[in-house]
Structure formats: C-alpha cells, structure tokens
Automatic annotation (TrEMBL):
Matching Gene3D superfamilies: Tctex-1
Pfam families to which the protein is assigned, alphabetical: Tctex-1 (PF03645)
A Gene Ontology molecular function term of the record: dynein intermediate chain binding
Protein name, as recorded: Dynein light chain Tctex-type family member 5
Entry's family note: Belongs to the dynein light chain Tctex-type family.
Name of encoding gene: DYNLT5
Native source species: Sciurus vulgaris
PANTHER family associated with the record: DYNEIN LIGHT CHAIN TCTEX-TYPE 5 (PTHR21255:SF64), T-COMPLEX-ASSOCIATED-TESTIS-EXPRESSED 1/ DYNEIN LIGHT CHAIN (PTHR21255)
Native organism taxonomy: Eukaryota, Metazoa, Chordata, Craniata, Vertebrata
One of the protein's GO biological processes: microtubule-based movement
Entry superkingdom: Eukaryota
Amino acid sequence: VKMSDFAKDKAAYSLRKRWNVVSPGSHDFRWKEGPGPGHARDSMSTVSYMDEPSQRDQVSRLAVQMENTYQLGPTKHFPVVTVNHILKDVLTNYLQEEEYEPELCRQMTKTISEVIKARVKELMIPRYKLIVIIHIGQLNGQSILIGSRCLWDPKSDTVSSYVFRNSSLFALANVYAVYFE
C-alpha cells in the first residue's frame, strides 16, 4: 500500500512529535522514548524500515491508474462455438499429416497454443483472461483420461474444447475463458 506524500509528511510529523531521534543510521533508527506515563525515561527501541525510493517506484507513480467500472458481468459473452471452430481449424492444419514424435509434439504444443491464443484474442472479447492448454499423445490403442477442475462463475466463465485424431496421434485443445471483473 503506497502512501501519498501528504500522508507520509503527516506520519513523520506525528512521529517526531512523539519521539526524539537519537542516532539515525541508513536503515536502522534508534529511538529514545519521550517522557510519558508508565515509560522509563532512558529506554531504547529499534525500528527497521526500508523506504528508499527506487526507480521502479518512480515509474509506478507515473503509471495511469484506472478507476473501477463496477461492471459485474460481461457485456458480450464468450463465443464458445466460434472458438471451437478455431480449435478445429488450427489442430487440423498443424497436425493432419504429422506422425507422433515426442520432441516434435512437445514443440508443437507450444506453437499451437500460441497460435490459438492469438486467434482467439483477434475476436476482441473484452475482459476475458485466456488459458490455452494443449495435450498431444501417441495413438496406439491405449486409453487415456484427461481431466481438469476449475473454480469459476458459471454465468460468465466457460471452456471450449476440441479433440483431434489422425492415424498416429491425438490432440486435445482446451481454451478456458475466465471473466475478469
């Protein structure tokens, strides 16, 4: 929590009024307690703090602060059907002719997830955070279950999913859209 300059000056003034500084160091201050009821006259206490302005603090002061809109729900809901078409298109274009190769598939998951995220962002759906997860595995007569659990608001948050298969591999693409208030 950042304090305004006025609040800092006010806090410093009330601190000086209440305490007498004995020996200020760079980060370590020793305070001599002023006379007061129930206090020993020469007791000492140490207060450590780190309040030197850094370059990062100065940059953050220059940043524009946005006001809350108090908008509690999306004005435009996430287009699940359109995103499903994007998933089908991207997975088919990238994996139609591919054979399963572990290293190639590892790289393809990264590439495909970035392409899908870029295509979904082109839809310009405001205030949705996107999470794209791609699974690619060898299709060899085995059985596999892939599950996910999310904590979200079912009125505004949703998921799009598509499964692709060819003779050598399978791919599962999930796009989670979480509304950001």
